[in-house]
């Protein structure tokens, strides 16, 4: 019998030792051309590392050692992917009751029901994975501690409650009713106390409440009417932690930064969102009320942004409570989008919004995420740190149909104005750096270090421009490449720089 053939995969092939081939497989194992992975079960012809081979053949091993087994407990959610290096299975009468150690993972059996209604039959093996209701029940916290040297089999009651919240968030009440029906069908086969815990959480999201407060903050918030996006808050929490580790860099707002800075802040804030005017045309729109034919709405966007910036009360108005954050954001948006009734000025989004394939916080999770996010960032005291945090929170939530970037920058700059610090301006040439830093933070690349660096430089650049006169500001902006198209500037090696 050949060890390998041209179609032998890199993970090799599983072979069961029988009376006719046992000696041959044993010789192959002694020569290093086969591997005894479990009693009477060999892998022949593998060329990958053994831990990868074990991981790829794990269901075949389970099917051989515990035919008819069910991936249960934490593996009921994770499937054949090991959890902390462990795979948990149950069997009504396990042929092997001790753990089976393979390179890189451990298979751990326990006595438990075989396949139940709604359990999932896995292809090509005699193994099932726990269905939705069963996996919830089997992950409820049980009494006692796991033996030393091994993780808990159960993810815990709080994780079960998080999963219930995820089910209703992604699939609605209908999915909860389906899982309840599954639970009714399998309840006699499972521990009554754990079944009762799951049933209580499922009916709670359908409106039948008890006085018990869930362990999961996500489920508790949903039952209180303010569900939130846990993933986005995890990102914000990481950013806040990084900001707390960053040394403050105060930049007091000096008098020479006064007269023309609000105009250019409004100009650039709209330009990078696609409302493009030449700078001289924008000056006439804002200061002389010259509205270009065919673009009255675009002109209003620029003038409304300028009005929000130049008014000292509005420019420095910051929230002190989560409810104030919602009110201020809606008020700013109502002014900004007043000329665009189709964008529902002052109203939070009712349908999901996207940039490319990136989906922002769901409408049903929006207010809860904003409220809880504000609490997360409230421990920050440095004005620029608060500006970075609130800008990321508002951008990631994207609470409105349009105007989200401008509202985010207005709220961020209000934190700086209130403390007498230099505001942030993102010039045209810096647009891609700014958006890339936001996107990287949103996708979990690092803990927001790039966003912090980008906004620190934007503030330093803003502080370096002499805004005293229109002509002088335009000259400084030209010397720093501020008006350059970001794509063309990148191609020619030009960057935003401090004016000499």
The 3D shape can be described as elongated
Please work out how many helical segments DSSP would assign: 21
Low-pLDDT runs: 1-5
Structural class designation: alpha+beta
Number of domains: 3
Strand content: 5-15%
Output the CATH topology of the largest domain. Fic-like fold
Mean pLDDT reading = 93
CATH class of the largest domain: Mainly Alpha
CATH architecture of the largest domain: Orthogonal Bundle
Q: Could you tell me the radius of gyration in angstroms?
A: 30 Å
Strands ordered across the widest β-sheet: 6-7-5-4-9-8
* Helix proportion: 40-55%
How far apart the termini lie comes to 78 Å
Number of strands: 11
Largest sheet, described in full? 6 strands, mixed
Regarding quaternary structure, what we see is single chain
CATH homolog superfamily of the largest domain: Fido-like domain
Describe this structure in words.
It is a single chain. The protein is of the alpha+beta class. The chain folds into three domains: 13-130, no CATH class; 157-223, no CATH class; 230-491, Orthogonal Bundle (Fic-like fold), CATH 1.10.3290.10. It is 50% helix and 8% strand. The protein has a six-stranded mixed sheet. Strands 1-3-2 form a three-stranded antiparallel sheet, sandwiched between helices. Strands 10-11 form a two-stranded antiparallel ribbon. The longest helix has 30 residues, at 157-186. Residues 1-5 have low confidence and may be disordered.
């Amino acid at each position: 019998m050949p060890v390998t053939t041209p179609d032998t995969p890199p993970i090799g092939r599983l072979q069961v030792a029988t009376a006719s081939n046992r000696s041959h497989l044993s010789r192959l194992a002694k020569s290093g051309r086969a591997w005894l992975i479990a009693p009477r079960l060999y892998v022949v012809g593998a060329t990958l590392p053994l831990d990868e081979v074990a991981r790829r053949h794990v269901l075949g091993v389970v099917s051989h050692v515990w035919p008819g087994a069910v991936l249960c407990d934490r593996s009921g959610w994770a499937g054949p992917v090991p959890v902390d290096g462990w795979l948990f299975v149950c069997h009504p009468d396990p042929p092997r009751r001790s753990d089976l150690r393979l390179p890189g993972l451990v298979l751990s059996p326990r006595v438990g029901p075989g396949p139940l209604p709604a359990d999932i039959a896995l292809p090509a093996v005699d193994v099932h994975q726990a269905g939705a209701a069963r996996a919830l029940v089997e992950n409820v916290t049980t009494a006692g501690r796991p033996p030393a040297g091994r993780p808990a089999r159960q993810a815990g009651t709080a994780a079960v409650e998080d999963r219930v919240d995820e089910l209703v968030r992604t699939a609605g009440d209908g999915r909860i009713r389906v899982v309840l029906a599954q639970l009714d069908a399998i309840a006699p086969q499972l521990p009554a106390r754990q079944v009762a815990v799951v049933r209580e959480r499922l009916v709670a999201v359908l409106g039948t409440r008890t006085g018990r407060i869930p362990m999961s903050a996500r489920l508790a918030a949903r039952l209180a009417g303010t569900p939130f996006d846990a993933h986005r808050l995890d990102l914000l929490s990481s950013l806040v932690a990084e900001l707390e580790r960053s040394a403050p860099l105060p930049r007091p707002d000096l008098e020479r930064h006064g007269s023309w800075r609000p105009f250019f802040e409004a100009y650039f804030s709209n330009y990078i969102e696609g409302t493009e005017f030449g700078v001289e045309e924008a000056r006439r729109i804002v200061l002389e009320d010259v509205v270009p034919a065919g673009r009255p709405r675009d002109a209003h966007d620029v003038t409304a942004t300028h009005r929000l910036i130049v008014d000292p009360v509005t420019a420095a108005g910051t929230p002190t409570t989560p409810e104030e954050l919602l009110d201020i954001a809606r008020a700013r948006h109502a002014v900004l989008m007043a000329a665009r009734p189709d964008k529902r000025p002052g109203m939070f989004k009712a349908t999901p919004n996207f940039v490319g394939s990136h989906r922002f916080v769901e409408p049903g999770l929006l207010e809860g995420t904003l409220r809880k996010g504000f609490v997360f960032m409230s421990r920050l005291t440095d004005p620029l740190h608060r500006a970075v945090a609130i800008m990321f929170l508002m951008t990631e939530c994207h609470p409105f149909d349009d105007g989200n970037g401008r509202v985010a920058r207005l709220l961020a700059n209000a934190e700086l104005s209130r403390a007498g610090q230099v505001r942030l301006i993102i010039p045209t040439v810096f647009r891609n750096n700014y958006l890339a830093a936001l996107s990287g933070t949103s996708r979990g690349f690092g803990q927001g270090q790039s966003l912090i660096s980008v906004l620190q430089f934007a503030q330093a650049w803003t502080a370096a421009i002499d805004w005293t006169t229109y002509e002088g500001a335009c000259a400084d902006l030209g010397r720093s490449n501020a008006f350059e198209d970001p794509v063309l500037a990148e191609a020619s090696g030009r960057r935003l720089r401090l004016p000499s």
